[in-house]
Amino acid sequence: MLQYLDRTLRTAAAPWGMVSFQLAGSMEESRSILQSWGAMGCVHAALSLGLDFLFLFFYSTAFSLACMLWSEGVSGSFERIRFFGSLFAWISLFARVFDGLENLALIQLLFGSEHSAWIGMGRWSALTKFGLLLTVMTWLSYVWILRLRGKH
C-alpha cells in the first residue's frame, strides 16, 4: 500500500516521492514538492503518513526482536554479540521515536504550516531514523553471516 501511494508522489520536484519530501532542505523545496503533487497527491501523502504511524511500530518491533533472537543464537566467545544484540534492539525501538517526530513535522507542512522549524525537524528526524536503521540492518547482516558460517 505504501509503495502504491509513493508511486503517485514521484514527480520532477519529488523524484523519490515521500523520501524527497522527508529530506527537503528548505521551505521553498517543500512548497515545490507539495505543489507538484497537487490536491490528490497531498491526500495520498497524508494517507501514507497515517499508515506510517502504524508501520513504524511493526518494523521497529520486528527489528528489535530480530536483534535479540539472532544474537542469542550465537554462543561461545561471542558474549559481546549478545550485548550488542540487546543494544541494537533498543536502537531499533528508538528509531521509531524519530520516525514519529518526522511524521509529525511532515503533517504540519502538508497542512500548510509556514514554520521553517518543521523542515529541520522533519529532515533531521528522517536522517537520524535512516542512520539508526541502517546501523541495525548492518548489525543484523553481520550476525546473520556469523550464524551462516556456523559460529554458534
Structure explained in plain terms:
The chain is mainly alpha-helical and 152 residues long. The protein has one domain. It has five helices and no strands. It has helices at 2-7, 18-22, 27-72, 79-110, 117-148. Helix 3 (27-72) runs antiparallel to helix 4 (79-110) and helix 4 packs antiparallel against helix 5 (117-148). The N and C termini lie far apart (38 Å).
The biggest sheet amounts to: none
What structural class do the secondary elements suggest?
A: mainly alpha
Integer-rounded radius of gyration: 18 Å
Range of helix content:
over 70%
Backbone shape: elongated
Span from first to last CA?
38 Å
Strand content: under 5%
The overall pLDDT, averaged over residues, is 91
Low-confidence stretches: none
Count of helices? 5
Based on DSSP secondary structure assignment, what is the total number of beta strands?
0
Helix and strand element order:
HHHHH
The total tally of domains equals 1
